[in-house]
Amino acid sequence: MIKNVNLIVPELQFDENNELIISPSPTSSKDDFDFFQGKFKLKNLKLKTFFDNCNEWIEFESTQEMYKVLHGLGNIDNFIAIRNGKPFEGMTVRLFNPKTKLWSMYWADSSRATFDPPVIGSFENNIGYFYTKDVINNQNVIVVFRWDVTDKNKPIWSQAFSNNNGKTWEWNWFMYMTKVE
After folding, report:
1. What are phi and psi of 59, to 5 degrees?
2. Is residue 31 domain-resident?
3. Helix (H) or strand (E) holding 11
4. Sign of the C-alpha dihedral, residues 107, 109, 115, 116?
5. Would 13 disulfide with which of 21, 80, 116, 158, CB 3.0-4.6 Å?
6. Considering Cα of 14, then 20, then 23, then 25, what sign does the dihedral take?
7. Is residue 171 in a domain?
8. Distances (CA, A) of 29 to 68, 99, 100, 122
């Protein structure tokens, strides 16, 4: 049950140093993640391997709980799952910069206990795009997180990687969420 595999990512812009240019939407605000407060049950579908034409998806359940911090300028969530028969925990710290009107998201998990590079972006019309550069499988990639909150009780988060500066994308993780509290 993979939905939205052929999602389109907005065209990326780069500066003269090949750095991503990420601009906020006109409606970006510190309240963009309010829909995510509370507890959710998640159905995860994740590609088994990346960048090798893999069509095998690993499916697992998880839970997520988010709460606001810093007077609403940030939030933290805990992601709890069993992966490969072992307990797995992740967390996201999200911070909204009122000057730039951009969100920065920092992910860490129990397999590495270090923050990934921040994923930066904003929402427009209940769809959010957040980007970063990273190294995956020894390849320089651009990462995109896409949040679809057209149904605030059943948001969909998805992730894709591009190893060619955004010309093509490999969608590799989907979270189908259901609010439980």
Report:
1. -110, 135
2. yes
3. none
4. negative
5. 21
6. positive
7. yes
8. 14, 11, 10, 8
What contacts 137, CB < 8 A, 6 or more positions away? 50, 51
CATH of the domain at 173: 2.40.128.20
pLDDT of residue 118: 96
Token reading at 153:
């009780």
Q: Which residue has the tokens 């003269």?
A: 16
- Would you say how long the chain is, in residues? 181
Residue 24 structure tokens: 């906020």
Predicted pLDDT at 121: 97
Number of separate domains in the chain: 1
Phi, then psi, of 36 in degrees rounded to 5: -95, 0
Q: Does 65 reside within a domain? A: yes
Helix/strand/coil for 3: coil
**pTM for this prediction:** 0.90
Domain residues for the domain of 97 are: 24-179
pLDDT at res. 8: 76
**Of residues 111, 76, 92, the one with CA closest to residue 159:** 92
CB 156 within 8 A of CB 132: no
Residue 3 lies in a domain: no
Q: How far is CA 68 from CA 1, 30, 170, in A?
A: 32, 10, 32
